[in-house]
Amino acid sequence: MSFVYILLMQATVILYLHSEVTGKVEFTNLKCTSFDPKFSEFEYCHFKAINRTFKYLSLKVKLYETPITNVKVNVALLKRFGGYKPFLYNVTVDACKFLKNPSSNAVIVYLHGFFKSHSNMNHTCPYDHDLIVDKLTADFLNTQVTEVISFPFGEFLFQSQWFAYDILRASVNVYVTLS
C-alpha cells in the first residue's frame, strides 16, 4: 500500500471517530449566593433531574432596589486540574452596553447564548423586574459546548459575578462534567 493511501485511511478513521464520539454535559452542582440581601435574593436556585436523560436548572433573583440601570458581569470558565483553574474565558462586560449592541463582543455573545433563550435577561437596562433562568437543560448546554465550540472532556465551573453600581451583589456558579 502506498504511504498516501495509508494516510488517507487514517484521516478517514479519525474523522469518523470524531463525528461519532461527542460529549455529554451533566450538571453536578449549582451555587447561587446573594452578597446583599437588601438589594437582591435568590427565591430559588436549583437543578432537577426529571429522569436519567432530562435535567435542567432554574433560578429566580428577586430585585428589591429597582430600577437597576448599571450592571456589570464577570464571567469565567474554569476547568478542574487538581482544583479549578482558569480555562479559556475570563471577561467582564458592562451588561447594559452589551445588550444595546450585542455584536460588540463575540465571547460574550457566545456565553450569553448559554442561557439567553431560557431567560428574561434579554433587554437593555433598566431592569425593574425579577430575573429568571427557567429550565435550562443539560441538552441545550450540550449543543453549545460540543457543536458550537468543541470543549475537551472534564469537569468545568461556569462562574459569574454580578455587579450593580460597581458593588458585587451576587454570584452564580454552575458546575458541569463533560464526558
What does this structure look like?
Keywords: Signal. Residues 1-23 form the signal peptide. With 179 residues, the chain is α+β, with helices and mostly antiparallel strands. The protein has a single domain, classed as Distorted Sandwich (Ganglioside M2 Activator Protein, Chain: A), CATH 2.70.220.10. It is 23% helix and 45% strand. It has four helices and eight strands; from the N terminus they run H-E-E-E-E-E-H-H-E-H-E-E. The strands form two sheets. A five-stranded antiparallel sheet has the order 1-8-7-4-5. A three-stranded antiparallel sheet has the order 2-3-6. Strand 7 (154-164) and strand 8 form a beta hairpin. The chain is globular and about 40 Å long. Mean pLDDT is 84; it is low at 1-21.
List the helices and strands and how they pair.
Layout (H helix, E strand, L loop, with lengths): L2 H18 L4 E10 L5 E10 L5 E9 L7 E10 L3 E11 H6 L5 H7 L18 E7 H11 L5 E11 L2 E12 L1
Antiparallel strand pairs: 1-8, 2-3, 3-6, 4-5, 4-7, 7-8
Annotation keywords:
single chain, 179 residues, alpha+beta, Ganglioside M2 Activator Protein, Chain: A, 5-stranded antiparallel sheet, 3-stranded antiparallel sheet, 4 helices, 8 strands, 23% helix, globular, disordered N terminus
